[in-house]
Amino acid sequence: MPRPYPCFGTRLWAVVGAVAVATVWSSPAQADLPRALHDLTHVTPSAPLRATLGTVAGSSTVELRARSRRCAKATPVTLLISVDARRIARVKLHSANWRNVSVPQKLAAGGHTLLVGVAGRPACSRATVDELRLGGRADRPADAPAPPGTPLGPKRRIPIGAAVNWDISTRLDRAEDQAFLGHFQGLTPENAMKMTYVEPRRNEFDWSETDPLVTYAMDQHRTVRGHTLIWHKQLPGWLTQRRWTREEMTAVMKEWISGIAGRYKGRITDWDVLNELFDEHGAWRTNSPWYDALGPDLADMALRTASEVDPGARLFINDFDIELPGPKQDAVYNLARDLKARGVPLDGIGIQAHWSGESLPPEPTLLATMNRFASLGLRVELTELDITTDRFADALQRQADAYAMAGRVCQSVASCDRITVWGISDKDSWRGGVNRPLLFDDKFNAKPAYGALIGALAAG
Ligand code: G3I
Questions:
Q1: Least packed by Cβ within 10 Å: which of 12, 235, 241, 371?
Q2: CA–CA separation, 366 vs 380, rounded Å?
């Protein structure tokens, strides 16, 4: 069944082959972006709004949107929008009400100059522009992953997602919001969808954090990765503080998965259904109430239930320390192979990718690992990428090189169609700000790692 694939809208973005990546590559840093792109800006005949935009890979249909209004009681103001000195829209604003202007455009790869001006009586020809965007209607990615070995064209579009830890109903930091909207196309709730928060008492669900988050993502045309259904951590006390029979636990699992995956059916594109099933020796983790009651059958049961509840969502096994060959990688591979062979619904493997300088996988190894999982006909994503730094002078550059490596490998594996980083700003990382693991510093300035990742993804 086709899933809706949203029209992406960010303040500025460049298209990198199914999805847009927010960047203005012709501007060196986020700090250089004109304030006008973020805030309300008045445009007059003598002071048009000018911005440089970049599209990276090939041409793409994009939409330009500007919300604007004339000053009160004046004659109509005409809003003029040009790209590369070519007029693409002329819009009469008759009232002070806000209106959206959407202009489909084809832009070739390269830099473009956007100009928003007004025409009208000089005395009162002022338009106020807000939420200026260069967006686009990206092609929906194919439902099936590309078979391994599929030659990759230059126009692959790889979106970047970010985990966020917001309670949107009470806090939405403007700088963080801008960084998110400006640079990320996908959202993973870092904690909000975990069972301890959503089902604090059996069969009593608390949607107070998740509903606003999903609504926000939908309003902003972002995809949502659901995280996570079956995990041995962040479970409610009522689940962990007693033992369950197989029958009881089956019912508990059905209630939980039906509750959350049912509520967001059609709005969550991917679910981390099975999270961290194995220990470092490749043995099933036994410190889990799910495993305690259900044993290895929990994998079948969870995947089948999730698939029944939301047949449109892609279902993932997600784990860490599976980049390098070894018993843990083998355990995930063997389980996935077995599930596929028996027709259990499974769509992908998430490699969490919490790395440091020491644990960084060599590029050929990561490539081989991703291709190994892809050979099962599965998608492969980096789902929680972060890379800590040390204090040596070249740490940020080495980190940038590591992010670039991740982007290059994803670009060269046909079934890798998204990278998600585990947070936006260093200051909010679960690994501690001092380790500076993410793409943006604690003031939301883009770090070298951001440009390196974008560059590697664009290079495909
Ligand atoms: O809920 C309490 C809140 O009531 C309290 O005010 C606050 C004060 O510190 O703590 C809150 O709980 C914290 C929770 O995050 C929500 O912020 C926990 O102490 C903290 O331990 C928890 O950490 C999360 C961790 O999972 C739990 O294991 C991290 O933020 C989150 O990044 C991390 O994410 C996991 C993925 O889900 C799975 N893969 C590994 C990854 C990193 O550990």
A1: 241
A2: 11
Which of these ranges, 138-152, 356-370, 381-395, has the smallest mean pLDDT? 138-152
- Provide the whole-model pTM: 0.73
Residue of 164, 166, 191 to mutate, ligand 1, most atoms within 8 A of C-beta: 191
CA 194, 381, 435: angle at the middle one, nearest 5?
70
The verdict on whether 131 is a catalytic residue reads no
Q: Pick the catalytic residue: 276, 280, 358, 381? A: 276
Q: Quick one: 123 exposed, middle or buried, by C-beta within 10 A (0-12, 13-18, 19+)?
A: exposed
Q: Atom 23, ligand 1: which residue's CA is nearest?
A: 430
Instruction: Tell me the Ramachandran region of residue 121: left when phi exceeds 0, alpha when psi lies from -120 to 50, beta otherwise.
Output: beta
pLDDT tens column, 194-230: 999 999 999 999 999 999 999 999 988 899 999 999 9
Please say if the pLDDT value at position 285 is more than 70: yes
Active site annotation includes 358 = no
Cis check: omega of the bond before 188, within 30 degrees of 0: no
| Residue 98 pLDDT grade (very low, low, confident, very high; cuts 50, 70, 90) | low
Do residues 378 and 336 lie in contact, with contact meaning Cβ atoms separated by under 8 Å? yes
CA of 28 to the centre of ligand 1 (A): 34
Ligand 1 atom nearest 352 alpha carbon:
39
Q: Pocket residues for ligand 1 (CB within 6 Å)?
A: 165, 190-191, 233-234, 275, 352, 384, 430
Q: How many CB atoms sit inside 10 A of residue 87's CB?
A: 10
For residues 382 and 419, the answer to whether their CB atoms sit within 8 Å is yes
Give tens-digit pLDDT for 296-353.
999 999 999 999 999 999 999 999 999 999 999 999 999 999 999 999 999 999 999 9
